[in-house]
Target: 8-oxo-dGTP diphosphatase
Amino acid sequence: MKKDIHVVGAVIVSSGKVLCVQRGPDGTLPGLWEFPGGKIEPGETAQEALRREVVEELQCHVHVGEEFTTTRHTYDFGIVHLSTFYCELVDGSPQLSEHSDMTWRDPADLRDLVWAPADIPAVQLIEQRFGVSRSAG
Ligand SMILES: Nc1nc2c([nH]c(=O)n2[C@H]2C[C@H](O)[C@@H](COP(=O)(O)OP(=O)(O)OP(=O)(O)O)O2)c(=O)[nH]1
Model:
């Protein structure tokens, strides 16, 4: 049985752009892009975990809004249940610390990044919500 890993991710939108962060070269899913966030710790709500992770990773504070989507992806190391939430920056601006890189992207340009596989459904939903039209092919 693979282990279930409950992860929260922040969809931080500012001036129409979405914050994307790149995982470091070591560890799980090296170099892939993801939403800021991480594993929910025992006793935490998803929202509490997200606020904590954003402070740890980006040294800024967000208001966690409504849930965006929850999807599940099976990796070789476990089953990641990824819940993403709309978040609004309320204090400070994101500072790079644990990640290799960060970028604010227009929803139409998210696909240019190589995302963690678990994130693809959320990325597609962002495109839909922001009216990105994709021509076939
Ligand atoms: N934070 C975050 N993690 C994600 C996303 N998509 C995705 O598959 N993950 C995976 C990567 C990790 O296995 C796990 C989150 O773990 P984490 O960020 O709290 O901790 P970590 O890098 O130390 O993870 P690990 O090396 O211990 O597995 O979920 C995402 O969009 N954001």
Notes: The chain has a mean pLDDT of 97. The pocket of 8-OXO-2'-deoxyguanosine-5'-triphosphate is lined by residues 5, 7, 9, 27-29, 34-35, 37-39, 80, 82, 116, 118-119 (CB under 6 Å). Residues 4-129 form a domain with the Nucleoside Triphosphate Pyrophosphohydrolase fold (CATH 3.90.79.10).
